[in-house]
Amino acid sequence: MKAQADRWIRATADVITVDLGPDDALAISNALNEVCNGIHLDDWDFQTRMGVDRDHARTVLRGINDSIAAMKEQRLAEGKQW
Questions:
Q1: Is 0.85 topped by the overall pTM?
Q2: Across residues 27-40, what is the average pLDDT?
Q3: Nearest alpha carbon to residue 45 among 33, 35, 60
Q4: 78 CB contacts (<8 Å, ≥6 apart)?
């Protein structure tokens, strides 16, 4: 599977860049939304399980959702299905 991942994941010492299609982005957004806002985890348990605090995860979620909105707008403007 590594050969496939090389096409859409790039890593340096400072950043990992991931190219996501619509379905991939929605899957990550939905998973983050569920863990941030759906299931109840105490703050200490959230940090332990996720490796970041809830505020950080929500910031990532907002960024992904903003990117999804931009992608959707661009795809629809190009006549592509969402």
A1: no
A2: 95
A3: 35
A4: none
